[in-house]
Amino acid sequence: MDMKINSMMEPLGASLKLKSGETPNGNAFANSLSEAFNDVNKMQLEADTALEDLITGKTKNIHETMMTLGKAELAFKLTMQVRNKVMEAYKDVMNTAV
After folding, report:
1. Do residues 56 and 65 touch, judged by C-beta distance below 8 A?
2. Is residue 74 part of a domain?
3. In the chain, what is the straight-line distance between the N-terminal and C-terminal CA atoms, in Å?
4. How far is Cα 11 from Cα 30, in angstroms, rounded to an integer?
5. How would you class 86 by CB atoms within 10 Å of its CB: exposed for 0-12, middle for 13-18, buried for 19 or more?
6. pLDDT digit string (tens) for 4-15?
7. Residues contacting residue 61 through CB under 8 Å, at least 6 positions apart
8. Residue at 2 is within a domain
9. pLDDT at 24
10. Residue 11 near residue 82, CB atoms below 8 Å
11. Which of 2, 19, 53, 72 could be a cystine partner for 43, CB 3.0 to 4.6 Å?
């Protein structure tokens, strides 16, 4: 359960590397965004499982459980902030006079 903060923090454009001669078509961005959402969802599910295991007594490692919960919370907060910035940028574009 390794959270790659460095890869999450790099600009989206840097992770959308195109092969030579390939033109951007929007699918690369959509795929990257979908993959990021899937990763966050996976972290949330792992946190739920870790908490359930702690409650049911399958594990007694509270430290690792809390680390898993913290990673999932951080990933979710980062996702929400990115969403808020995208929505804000969309509203600014829509309110721009042409």
Report:
1. no
2. yes
3. 48
4. 15
5. exposed
6. 545 544 554 455
7. 54
8. no
9. 62
10. no
11. 72
In a domain, 31, yes or no: no
pLDDT at 64: 94
3-state secondary structure of 71: helix
**In angstroms, rounded to a whole number, what is the distance separating the alpha carbons of residues 89 and 94?**
9
3-state secondary structure 15-38: HCCCCCCCCCCCHHHHHHHHHHHH
Structure pTM? 0.66
* Eight-class DSSP state of 20: T
- Per the structure, the complete domain to which residue 83 belongs is given by 40-98
Q: At what angle do helices 62-94 and 27-56 cross, to 10 degrees?
A: 150
27, part of any domain: no
Domain count, the chain: 1
